[in-house]
Design a protein that fits this description.
The structure holds two protein chains of two kinds.
Chain A lengths: L2 H30 L4 E3 L5 E3 L1 H7 L2 H4 L3 H5 L4 H16 L9 H30 E2 L3 H7 L2 H4 L2 H12 L4 H8 L11 H25 L3 H9 L4 H29 L3 H7 L6 H10 L3 H28 L13 E2 L10 H27 L2 E2 L2 E2 L2 H12 L7 H31 L5 H8 L1 H4 L2 H13 L2 E4 L2 E5 L2 H26 L2 H9 L4 H12 L1 H17 L2 H7 L7 H7 L6 H30 L1
Parallel strand pairs in A: 3-4
Antiparallel strand pairs in A: 1-2, 5-6, 7-8
Helix pairs in contact in A: 1-19, 1-22, 1-23, 6-11, 6-13, 7-29, 9-14, 9-17, 11-13, 11-14, 12-13, 13-16, 15-16, 16-20, 18-29, 19-20, 19-23, 19-26, 19-28, 22-27, 23-26, 23-27, 24-25, 26-29, 28-29
Chain B lengths: L2 E6 L11 E7 L21 E7 L1 H5 L6 H11 L3 E7 L5 H8 L8 E5 L1 H10 L32 E12 L22 E4 L5 H28 L3 E3 L2 H9 L5 E5 L2 H7 L8 E3 L4 E11 L6 H11 L2 H11 L2 E2 L8 H6 L5 E3 L3 H4 L3 H13 L2
Parallel strand pairs in B: 3-4, 3-5, 7-8, 7-9, 11-13
Antiparallel strand pairs in B: 1-2, 5-11, 6-9, 6-10, 6-11, 6-12
Helix pairs in contact in B: 5-12
The chains are: A mainly alpha, B alpha/beta.
């Protein structure tokens, strides 16, 4: 056995840690440390005033400001709560407001409920039924995840706006009009647009890994179908559903561009404030807010990982349930389940397909009806654009190159992190939560940190600086953003495997890496493929870090091109958006098809 | 000026593209600026590369960005000079951050500076980021309209200006004649505006209301606007997209809106320009030479060129803004569609200094606290 093979996992874990340190913890540390005032001296005086100011500001925390100002006056706070409760019961007081943080958590909670409600039936349909186009649809469920917010905003306005498709349809049957733009409802629908497919994906993957023999055993022991589902299948799905819910909550808690594009400033969230404070160079307050935001996300992640760790191991891998045909006959359509599926399909068409098609539609309509002028613009820009101008083809090429490279880097990183964090050791949930850092930290903070750190140059002492920019830096940053998704896709399945299998392989002389590649990975192939698609998606959809690290070079990607083609007309940006849509759709179908081969071995 | 040595080293064994770069400051200390007040002389001829940092749409707008024309024209006037554009993704903020962290500034000129950019830069930095233009003999500086000069220290000179106004759809609403009109019933749910924290026109519109209602009254006015269902987006782009999709019939935008509408054969009735009280808030765009520039004389020469009659006539049209000088020669069509208000509102640098942050902050909390 070579040294490399024996230490492959250790080397991968160390390399992962190094990349994460330079491209994540250091940049984020630079920004967040602004919240902490350190006066020189021995020992240095550390001031946490910035946090105290945020926590005692009723704009940020509402009714909790008094508690933040004087956290130890417990009896006074208890009296206040008691007097409020009495007033509330007497109908004299309403529900208290908890400021910007309270509103942010509230809308995230509603968005999570909506995303799970909209995502679960999708997982059921994709995992349990067979129908033409099922695999393609499953591949495309990741699409909403990567769509730039401008495209989604334009699509939503064209679909749900005052002059939108929905209102046109309502008018034909004498209803409406509805005016939902700028309200919390439309923001929540948009959050569900982004996140319900995520819930669908992770849940469908888990459903496909349910061991059919466990169901058969339950049935043979006399359990009804319903009992078997509730007692055998549901527990195996719950970790995946909770993963989807957790990710959705964390994402929507830190929601940024879409909430402003559809809701406006009145629905501002904490992340909006972080962005505006950073833009106004108020680092101290921004860092304090972002730190609190991150602490909350990490705490939730930690709680979830504690839960996941308690789940029983013992699965010997996939022996999936058989799918049943969705439309075996015309008559079968009358069954309640299939009618439900049809109703669900109608909702999917309105919420997901509608906005995307509406966006595409704006790219082919001009002042005088149908036109290809905006695609001609793309071709012309490609042919005649000057060196500094953004051209479509390099954007497509860069997106694909970065996506594939990110996939290649993030897969081993994510699997290494999954292996490390599914080992039994004290504090594993802490390490696991820290490894999830990149999804728990505001993207804006990460972006600014990359600028202040790697782009400006990290001082090494003696006037030396380490600068990291350009294509490789972009891939590294994308991989850091993407690997947690690989880990989250793989770890739950890995954790359920029977440890006896790895132990036998090792007893027979296999290295840890060999056991992983030959025994474990094939059994969790569904998770690896799901992770690969995520890694590609994160890279293709990433905006903030790409713009910052591309600095002056030709490393721009498709979402950057969409943003640059914005102007007085909707056409050029939506035409580029349509190109993005087509290129990524094809990519995801290809990834899933290639992955399918790997899954079948 | 600082001299730097660059050493390159690849970081990460598998890297194919240039990834890491280790640099060292080589501070001689001998030649650092004691030439603060000295005058720069115009050499016989210029050569070398001039790096001009600017906002993205100046060189890369889907319409007819002026960048390419400026580059060709200036290079043809000075053999041996090359203009290199640098897109500042984060406007002048990034250069302030660089100065704060002693990171390299490799641009010579910044194009697209606002009054408030300058106020923020001066607030954050002990030493000015930019050099005074008084150090150079300009040919065209006297042509600048006086009311647009916004920097009391003469570092930034305006090369064009926008006027913030309301753009509305005359099929749906009448022309609003005063600010108070906007809070009345016919205008309920009609206005799209932008966040004063993050958008130039949004900030200008807010400042306009401060001018109109005083710092004690503008928040009350905004409360009335909120009650009348104004919608506030984070960027001009988001709000204009919504306006284009006919989500609402009125948007805070630029007074040159009809130039685009005419250029793209759009329905002019949806592109009417209103100046409440006959006023418009001026948003002059300035340019300045970085204190850190290696070739300040060339930088000032470039600024002088931007103020010349030919550049003023051309750049304004291509950038769809109005010229900052009185000697521009605009074509008739542009003149017809680019509207100028009877009266210009603008806060001076001195008025904004010390106030801007509070005005914006109070405003944002008022809106989001609802």
């Amino acid at each position: 056995m070579s040294w490399v093979e024996r230490h492959a996992l250790g080397v991968a874990a160390a390399a992962t840690a190094a990349v994460i340190a330079v491209m994540f913890y250091l940049p984020v540390g630079i920004v967040l440390s602004e919240a902490v005032g350190i006066a020189p001296g021995f020992p240095p005086a550390v001031s946490l005033d910035a946090f105290a100011e945020v926590l005692s500001d009723s704009f940020y925390v509402g009714a909790l400001a008094g508690v933040g100002a004087d956290p130890f006056a417990v009896s006074r706070h208890a009296d206040n709560v008691a007097s409020w409760a009495a007033a509330f019961l007497a109908g004299e007081a309403g529900l208290p407001s908890f400021g910007l943080f309270g509103f942010t958590a509230y809308q995230a909670l509603l968005s999570t409920v909506a995303s799970v409600a909209l995502g679960l039936p999708g997982a059921y349909v994709l995992a349990r039924f067979e129908f033409p186009g099922r695999r393609t649809i499953r591949s495309l469920t990741i699409l909403p995840f990567i769509l730039p917010s401008i495209m989604v905003a334009i699509g939503f306005i064209a679909m749900f706006g005052r002059r939108g498709v929905v209102n046109d349809l309502l008018a034909t049957v004498g209803l409406g009009p509805i005016d939902v733009m700028g309200t919390l409802s439309i923001v929540i629908v948009a959050h569900a647009f982004y996140n319900a497919p995520l819930v669908t994906r992770v849940t469908a993957a888990a459903w496909e890994s349910v061991d059919a023999r466990t169901v058969e055993t339950a049935r043979s022991l006399g359990a009804s179908r319903r009992r078997a589902v509730l007692d055998v299948v549901a527990p195996q799905l719950l970790p995946a559903v909770l993963t989807g819910a957790l990710l959705t909550f964390v994402f929507t808690f830190m929601t940024f561009p879409i909430v402003l594009a559809l809701g406006g400033l009145r629905l501002a969230t904490v992340e909006v404030w972080v962005y505006n404070l950073l833009g106004n160079m108020n680092y101290r307050e921004a860092a304090a807010l972002a730190t609190l935001e991150t602490a909350l996300s990490l705490a939730l992640t930690y709680a979830y990982l504690r839960y996941e760790a308690r789940q029983a191991a013992g699965s010997r891998g996939a022996n999936p349930l058989q799918r049943v045909p969705l439309f075996p006959s015309l008559g079968a359509l009358r069954s309640p389940v299939r009618l439900g599926v049809l109703a669900y399909a109608a909702v999917v068409v309105v919420v997901f397909v509608g906005p995307v098609l509406s966006m595409v539609w704006t790219s082919v309509t001009g002042p005088d009806g149908l036109t290809l002028a905006y695609y001609e613009f793309l071709v012309q820009r490609q042919a005649e654009g000057s060196a500094v101008q953004t051209k479509p083809w390099p954007a497509v090429r860069n997106s694909l190159t970065f996506g594939v490279a990110t996939l290649a880097v993030a897969l081993p990183m994510g699997v290494a992190a999954a292996v490390v964090t599914t080992r039994k050791f004290r504090g594993r949930a802490v390490v696991g939560a820290l490894a999830m850092g990149p999804i728990a930290v505001s993207g804006i903070v990460t972006g600014v940190g990359l600028l202040l750190g790697p782009v400006f140059g990290i001082p090494l002492g003696g006037g030396w600086r380490l600068q990291v920019t350009g294509a490789t830096a972009i891939v590294a940053a994308h991989a850091v953003a993407a690997y947690p998704f690989v880990t989250r896709s793989v770890a739950p399945l890995l954790g359920r495997l029977d440890p006896a299998m790895v132990e036998s392989a090792r007893a027979l002389g296999a290295s840890r890496a060999r056991a992983l590649v030959d025994v474990e990975l094939p059994l969790v192939a569904a998770g690896v493929v799901a992770g690969a698609a995520f890694a590609f998606a994160i890279s293709v959809g990433e905006f903030d870090s790409t713009v910052i690290l591309a600095e002056g070079s030709q490393s721009y990607t498709m979402p950057v091109a969409v943003e640059r083609y914005r102007g007085r007309r909707l056409g050029p940006a939506t035409a580029m958006g349509t190109v993005l849509l087509v290129v990524t759709s094809v990519s995801f179908v290809v990834i899933d098809r290639l992955g399918g081969r790997f899954e079948r071995g | 000026m600082r001299r730097r040595t660059f050493l390159t080293a690849s970081v990460g064994a598998a890297s194919t593209a240039l990834a890491g770069c280790i640099t060292q400051d080589n501070d001689d200390g001998a030649d650092d600026d004691d030439d603060e007040e000295s005058t720069l002389t115009t050499p016989e001829s210029f050569d070398g590369t001039l790096t001009v940092a600017t906002y993205e749409s100046f060189v890369d707008a889907p319409s007819s960005s002026p960048g390419e024309w400026v580059k060709e024209e200036f290079e043809s006037m000075h053999d041996g000079v090359t203009i290199e554009w640098q897109i500042a993704e984060n406007s002048v903020t990034e250069f302030v951050q660089r100065a704060q962290r002693d990171a390299e500034i490799d641009a010579d000129v910044y194009l697209g500076l606002n009054v408030d950019d300058l106020v923020i830069a001066d607030r954050e930095l002990d030493e000015s980021l930019f050099m005074s233009a008084d150090r150079y003999g300009f040919e065209n500086r006297s042509a600048i309209k006086d009311d647009l000069l916004f920097d009391p220290q003469s570092r930034a000179l305006p090369y064009d200006t926008g006027y913030i106004s309301l753009v509305y759809d005359e099929n749906e609403v009448d022309e609003p004649e005063t600010f108070d009109d906007l809070t009345t019933d016919p205008y309920e749910g009609t206005l799209l505006a932008q966040n004063a924290q993050s958008s130039d026109p949004g900030r200008a519109f807010m400042l306009w209301t401060v001018d109109q209602f005083d710092e004690d009254g503008y928040l009350d006015y905004w409360q009335e606007l909120v009650d009348n269902d104004v919608r506030i987006f984070s960027s001009w782009g988001d709000s204009y997209d919504a306006y284009s999709a006919e989500e609402r019939p009125m948007v805070v935008s630029y007074s040159t809106d009809q130039v685009y509408a005419n250029r793209y054969d759009q329905d002019m009735s949806r592109h009417q320009v209103a100046f409440p009280n006959g006023q418009g808030y001026a948003n002059p765009e300035g340019m300045a030479v970085f204190e850190a520039s290696d070739s300040p004389a060339l930088g000032f020469e470039f600024m002088d060129f931007m103020l010349s009659q030919s550049a003023q006539s051309e750049v304004a049209v291509r950038n769809v803004q109005l010229p900052s000088t009185d000697h521009a020669d605009l074509d008739e069509e542009f003149d017809q569609y680019a509207h100028v208000p009877d009266e210009t509102v603008i806060f001076s640098y001195d008025q904004l200094q010390g106030n801007l942050n509070d005005w914006v902050d109070d405003w944002a909390r008022e809106i989001a606290g609802n």
